[in-house]
C-alpha cells in the first residue's frame, strides 16, 4: 500500500492486523518548507515519526518513494541516503515521470546516473546489490548502513522487459502498465457475478495485450492517462 504517511499513526496497527506487511511512503522532501510547498501540509515531523512507528510495528519492506526534480529537491539526495544509516528502509529515488496534470518538463528530470554520481561523491564505496527477478529498482547500499537505496529509471533506462507489475485502481480497474491508458473493470465483472475463471480469463487477456515497452518520454507526455494520485504506487 502507498501512503503519504500523514495519518498512518491512526491506522498502522489495524493495517498490520488486516495482514498488510509492507508499505510505500511517498516523501519528496526532508525540509519543512519544501514539504509544505509540495504537499500543502505542514506535518513533516509527524510523517517521519509515523515512518518510525511503522518500522516498530514490523512493516518490512518499508519503502520511501522520492520523486527527484531538478532545482526542487535534488539537493536533498544525500539527506535521503543518510536516512538509511540507522533505519532499515529502502529509499527509492524515482525519475520524474510525465502524468496527466503534473506539468511535466524534461528539464526538471534528473537521470539516475546523475543522482548516483552525487551520492558517490560522499560515499564512494557505495555498492550495487544483485538484481532480483522482475525488480523495477536498481538497488545500492552504503556498507555499514542498515537500509538501502534504489533508483526507478523509467525515463532514462526503462525496465519494461522484466516488469511484472499489475495495478488495481481504487475504483476497481486493472492497469497492466503504469503509462498505459488501457484498463479493464474487474469491479463490473464482480458485480455481474462473473465466475473466478471468467475474471482470470479477462486478466490474462489484458496481460497478453501489454505492449513490449512504453512509448517513450515524448509520446507519454502527450498521452491521456490518469494522474498518479488516481493510480497509486
At CATH level 3, the topology of the largest domain is TIM Barrel
Order of helices and strands: EHEHHEHEHEEEEEEHHH
Kindly provide the radius of gyration, computed on alpha-carbon positions and rounded to a whole number of angstroms.
19 Å
Number of strands: 10
Gross morphology: globular
Estimate the strand proportion.
Answer: 15-25%
Number of domains: 2
Number of helices: 8
CATH H-tier superfamily of the largest domain: Aldolase class I
Structural class: alpha/beta
Helix content range of the residues, please? 25-40%
Q: State the assembly state of the protein chains.
A: single chain
CATH-level-2 architecture of the largest domain: Alpha-Beta Barrel
Largest beta sheet: strand ordering: 1-2-3-4-7-6-5
Largest sheet: 7 strands, mixed
Mean pLDDT: 88
CATH class of the largest domain: Alpha Beta
Q: Stretches where pLDDT falls below 50 for ≥5 residues?
A: none
Distance between the termini: 7 Å
Explain what the structure shows.
The chain has 233 residues and is α/β, with parallel strands linked by helices. Helix content is 31%, strand content 16%. It contains 8 helices and 10 strands. The strands form 2 sheets. It has a 7-stranded mixed sheet with strand order 1-2-3-4-7-6-5, covered by helices on one side. A 3-stranded antiparallel sheet has the order 8-9-10. The chain starts with a strand and ends in a 13-residue tail after the last helix. This is Radical SAM core domain-containing protein.
Amino acid at each position: 500500500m502507498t501512503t503519504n504517511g500523514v495519518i498512518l499513526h491512526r491506522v498502522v496497527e489495524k493495517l498490520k492486523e488486516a495482514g498488510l506487511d509492507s508499505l510505500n511512503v511517498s516523501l519528496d522532501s526532508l525540509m519543512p518548507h519544501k514539504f509544505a510547498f509540495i504537499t500543502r501540509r505542514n506535518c513533516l515531523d509527524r510523517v517521519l515519526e509515523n515512518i518510525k512507528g511503522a518500522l516498530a510495528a514490523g512493516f518490512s519492506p518499508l519503502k520511501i518513494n522520492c520523486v527527484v526534480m531538478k532545482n526542487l529537491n535534488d539537493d536533498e539526495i544525500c539527506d535521503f541516503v543518510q536516512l538509511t544509516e540507522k533505519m532499515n528502509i529502502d529509499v527509492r529515488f524515482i525519475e520524474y515521470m510525465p502524468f496527466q496534470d503534473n506539468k511535466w518538463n524534461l528539464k526538471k528530470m534528473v537521470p539516475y546516473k546523475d543522482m548516483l554520481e552525487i551520492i558517490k561523491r560522499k560515499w564512494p564505496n557505495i555498492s550495487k546489490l544483485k538484481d532480483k527477478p522482475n525488480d523495477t529498482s536498481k538497488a545500492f547500499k552504503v556498507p555499514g548502513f542498515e537500509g538501502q537505496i534504489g533508483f526507478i529509471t523509467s525515463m532514462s533506462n526503462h525496465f519494461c522487459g522484466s516488469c511484472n507489475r499489475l495495478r488495481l485502481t481504487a475504483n476497481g480497474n486493472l492497469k497492466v502498465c503504469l503509462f498505459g491508458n488501457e484498463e479493464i473493470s474487474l469491479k463490473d465483472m464482480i458485480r455481474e457475478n462473473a465466475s473466478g475463471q471468467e475474471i482470470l480469463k479477462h486478466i490474462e487477456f489484458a496481460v497478453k495485450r501489454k505492449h513490449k515497452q512504453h512509448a517513450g518520454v515524448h509520446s507519454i507526455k502527450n498521452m491521456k492517462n490518469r494522474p498518479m494520485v488516481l493510480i497509486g504506487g
